[in-house]
Amino acid sequence: MDDDERSDPYVQEAMKRQREGNPDDAVALYQKALDRNPTLARAHFDIAQLMHDYKRDYVRAIYHYSRYLELRPDTEKKDMIKGRIQQAGQLYAATFFRAETQAAEKVAKLERDNFELKEEVERLKEDIRQIRKKQDKKGTGGRTAHTYQVQDGDSLTSIADDLYRDKNKWQLIYDANRDQIGESMALREGQILKIP
To answer: What does pTM read for this prediction?
Structure first.
């Protein structure tokens, strides 16, 4: 029976392309043969194998294997083909698992990226708060033309660092305010210092 079907010119050309290692052309030619005559069982079998082994199109492979079994219910290849149908079904199901795993990995990466971005936003917000605090000390809430209002946590070195960008210039501030700071060099929040 297979020999009769192999006499179809499209099937002959498809087999030739398949031997030459051109499965795409072979599939297209087998499909043309089936379009002309859907009862060509051997063409269904050959296209099923190509779909299964080369194209990895397991749904179409299962369809063509099933059509072959419908057309040749008593074939000696029945058990082998049923095994191939089962294998194709498992491989098709595995593609969903891989896709689901890949999607889960992408979601996990996006969640990690989102967490890192949130942390970075918080760090930037803190930097902005610190910059504003320093500006307040230097602006209307702190320093005017020649004075500075002491803020909570200030020391002579921190004020020198803020105003002069040099912690070692604390002595200038101390000398200008020795009468109100005294020997202890303790600062009080709200105290107004002269800035030389």
So the answer is: 0.49
